[in-house]
Amino acid sequence: MKQSLNINSFIKMKENNDKITCLTAYDYTSAKILDNAGIDLILIGDSLGMVMNGYNSTIPVTIDEIIYHTKAVKRAVTHAFVVADMPFGSYHIDEKSAVKNAVRLAKETEVPAVKLEGGKEIAPLIEKLVNTGIGVLGHIGLKPQMVNTMGGYKIFGKDGAESLIEDAKTLENAGAFAVVLEGVSSQSAVQITNSINIPTIGIGAGSGCSGQILVYHDIFGIFTDFKPKFVKRYANVADIIDKAAKEYINDVKAGTFPDDAHSFK
Length: 265
Prior knowledge:
Elements lengths: L6 H9 L4 E5 L3 H10 L3 E4 L3 H4 L11 H14 L4 E5 L9 H15 L3 E3 L7 H10 L2 E7 L5 H4 L11 H13 L3 E5 L3 H10 L4 E4 L7 E4 L1 H4 L17 H18 L11
Parallel strand pairs: 1-2, 1-8, 2-3, 3-4, 4-5, 5-6, 6-7, 7-8
Helix pairs in contact: 2-4, 4-5, 5-6, 6-8, 8-9
């Protein structure tokens, strides 16, 4: 079994130009598969709202839901570094409630780090959490929790990377160990990555980032409601399950399952 990873592991990986591999997971079985495969980082993302619970966005996800799924993932993992999303509303009201929610999440799940969406405006909160003993993964560019005020999903950095670089540097100075770049033009993502010492984790941000993250249900073809442009499907598990389910239904209807081999005498 590989040695478990920590925050310092990712700084060294960037220094060594060792690309960081990240995926989401929301349950024990999925997390165990990814951990055994050797994934570097597992995120319990608020994307669970759509792929697990059928919400139209990440907005309805609660901290109780994140805690439930994070506990399941943590039971499975021995190698990967685990990060839990702070959902919408859990850190937006005031710093006191934000710290309280982050401490609750870390304490009840034993997760070593949380992820927050936002730029320089949340730097004081990141510094407070790091000083409290909670690691922080930043997230700039497209911020799904702000989709209602952004006017929908769009690409950032097409007109230059200056403001994004400023955000990334501010998050680094506040103590974030890495920063997610979502929906950022590939040219701007390279500039951001070269402007900071901490790693960048891309999702729809090109190959120039320090690592990549995708949603479990997207990459394996389980969630089929829609497919973002930046997703590469490495399997079509939904088709496999559909075929197997139909075979099971046919066998039960025909009375051929269970047979003697699958029955007790």
